[in-house]
Specification:
With 368 residues, the protein is α+β, with helices and mostly antiparallel strands. The chain is 22% helix and 23% strand.
């Protein structure tokens, strides 16, 4: 089945041998009829959720993920396109952007009539780990990276994100959709091929709960949206702005937690990624490419980072939470990483060794 998406992107839906979904996103009308010929077994059973009663936070228990693939060599990469001699997760011999259901998901489709139980302290039951986990392959080029993608390719990735956000948000058991990328072994990447993931949760994750609470309180006190006021302060101060175009702004946050941390936000705020209009979508790729190129240019090496999309939960907070992209790098110098201290790991109280304004100066100074 083919579907025309914004930006000239065409989506085609297929199935893998074990029944998982795979979606191709192309900038032209290409036939994607390659068949997954692997003799694959069905996905592992669903895990479950346990409540940490000390903080009232859900923890997913997914023991079936113990044996997932770990740092395979390029010739065994499961995210490259398939060849005559090697069948991978992508049956076709080439691709632009692909999304497929994770082979070893921490969260997956539950049975009928699933619901998250009410919190009851030590008596809270352990429900199935409902949700979705998807892999987003940015390119078939194993040696590439998000920063090296063409503007057209980045737009295709954005349309894939938007499309999956829209679809996953309609599932009755989904409360929050989280697209993200881990890049570099320093942040725990297990496959080096350029890719990200999408986690769709059946509960609101702790960090989003805190952000929602702050946004609701600000709206109650001022009648304004918190991220809108944050952006106004950044524009007024100017010191921490990294890049800006007609629709997007990129800046080092006022209270950055990491030596190199960049937030990217639309100037016209939206609650959800799938609400980005044509002008916003078309303007995203150039600033995304510039920001990540500046990050790689600080020390002249490819920087390990975690890039996380924050947005409103599916069913609450649309009036006060706004979409934005947070990129954090654990590298503080060419040969040194930022390891979380006891204060940061144990208490969540971060200590920043570099003024955010200094970090912004270094990022702006990069010659592109």
């Amino acid at each position: 089945m083919k579907q025309q998406l914004p930006g000239g992107v065409i989506r085609q839906n297929r199935k893998l041998a074990d029944g998982r979904d795979i979606f191709y996103y192309d900038n032209s009308d290409i036939s994607r009829d390659a068949v997954d010929t692997r003799n694959e077994v069905a996905q592992p059973g669903i895990g479950h959720l346990r409540l940490d009663v000390l903080v009232n936070e859900w923890v997913a228990v997914a023991s079936h993920r113990q044996h997932r693939i770990f740092l395979p060599p390029k010739q065994l990469c499961p995210l490259c396109a398939s060849t005559k001699d090697k069948q991978t997760e992508i049956p076709d011999s080439d691709y632009e952007v692909v999304v497929f259901t994770n082979r070893a998901p921490a969260l997956t489709n539950p049975g009928e009539n699933w619901s998250l139980p009410q919190l009851a302290g030590l008596d809270t039951p352990n429900p199935d780990a409902a949700g979705a986990c998807e892999v987003v392959c940015y390119t078939s080029d194993h040696e590439s990276s998000f920063a090296k993608l063409s503007v057209k390719q980045i737009r295709a990735v954005l349309e894939a994100w938007k499309d999956r956000d829209k679809t996953l948000s309609t599932l009755s058991y989904i409360e929050h959709v989280f697209p993200f990328e881990n890049r570099g072994e320093e942040v725990g990447v297990t496959i080096s091929h350029p890719h990200g993931q999408i986690y769709a949760y059946s509960f609101i994750p702790p960090r989003v709960e805190k952000m929602l609470s702050a946004a609701q309180e600000h709206l109650k006190k001022t009648g304004r949206v918190l991220l809108d006021d944050v952006i106004k302060r950044e524009i007024k101060d100017e010191r921490r702005i990294i890049a800006k175009n007609s629709e997007w702004i990129a800046y080092v946050p006022y209270a950055a937690r990491y030596p190199f941390e960049i937030h990217v936000a639309p100037l016209r705020g939206v609650a959800h990624m799938n609400q980005l209009d044509e002008t916003q979508s078309e303007s995203f790729a150039p600033i995304a490419k510039e920001v990540l190129s500046r990050l790689d240019g600080v020390f002249g090496i490819e920087m390990a980072y975690i890039a996380s999309w924050y947005q409103s939960p599916v069913s609450i907070g649309q009036d006060c939470m706004r979409l934005h992209w947070q990129i954090v790098s654990v590298r503080r110098q060419p040969g040194k990483l930022k390891y979380l201290s006891g204060s940061e790991s144990g208490m969540g109280a971060f200590i920043m060794d570099l003024d955010p304004e200094q970090s912004a100066d270094q990022l702006r100074a990069v010659k592109l």
